[in-house]
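Last lecture ended with a question: if I hand you only a sequence, what can you say about the shape of the protein? Today we answer it with a concrete record. The protein is protein-serine/threonine phosphatase. Below, first the input exactly as provided, then the predicted structure, then a couple of comments.
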Amino acid sequence: MLRSCCRPLERCFGRRGGDGLLWHMDLKPHASGDFSIAVVQANSHLEDQSQVFTSPSTTYVGVYDGHGGPEASRFINGHLFHHLHKFATEQGGLSADVIKKAFNATEEEFLHLVKRTWPAQPQIASVGSCCLVGAISNDMLYVANLGDSRAVLGRRVSEGRRNPVVAERLSTDHNVAVEEVRKEVEALHPDDSHIVVYTRGVWRIKGIIQVSRSIGDIFLKKPEFNRDPLFHQFGSPVPLKRPVMTAEPSIQIRKLKPQDLFLIFASDGLWEQLSDEAAVEIVFKNPRVGIAKRLVRAALREAARKREMRYDDIKGIEKGMRRHFHDDITVIVIYLDHHQNSSTGRFKEQCTIDCTTAPVDIFSLNSRQTQQD
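The predicted structure:
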């Protein structure tokens, strides 16, 4: 049932506009509302992957922000939801334990892939991905993440306040730029005074990577890969006594309430440009159709402003070179209408078992459509 999740999305009405590296899907139904997706590519190969699985009873959301290459995020795209469904079926429903098992199974399968392809492709040991998952079932919301992609809730507050909707962060940023995360990593490695190093303008684990949790990054989890002469042909050895990263997700569970209006799931490419509050305000004040694309455009305008450029200038930059101006950006907005009884039946009737998966790569500007944003 979930195998179709790993296929590109020609069948799901996604479109590209005047920005040849921007793909979007304006609006589709899920069991308790609508959802919208948008992706803009900056890297030579799109390292962000994303998907939404819908059924009349369950909605899964996944945002996978790869680093070092696209292999890990693409692998998660093809495997994680299958494991979620399998373990949820075996254990009679979703739970924190089901989610942890699905993450662990995906990590273990990717490790097996690395071991198989290692002799011919040693660099695959350095490929990894952040992993952000949301699951909605029976008005319960589960948010699990590794890395620094982020889920933010837009929640209505009491009338009379200046801002009728507030932003509530539902995920933990596992990034050593955050002092609390830095201290957590240092506490786990008291005998390594160089476990976190400030280099190239940011804090990095072993001077290499900013995130402390991921799928993949095997050479930072399995010391035997680091010591192998084969890997030394690709990269400099990093002395490890024990793993310096983990695939253990942070999980939050909450009962959805009538005042919970919508969820924003996005890779850190969005949050580097927009605050939680700014993103929530954009969603709250604008029409649903194309809302994810609107958030991506807002982020691109902010990226252009920081470089004293116009958004149209950013659109003219080819992938690869464009990474100097912004990261790959993935946004999924999930509207929550579960509390409106008159709407619930309509959405359940419209919602079939389906998996919407964003493209594996987005076409270059050379094949840009003439349609303008």
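Comments.
1. The radius of gyration is 20 Å.
2. The first strand starts at residue 15 and ends at 16.
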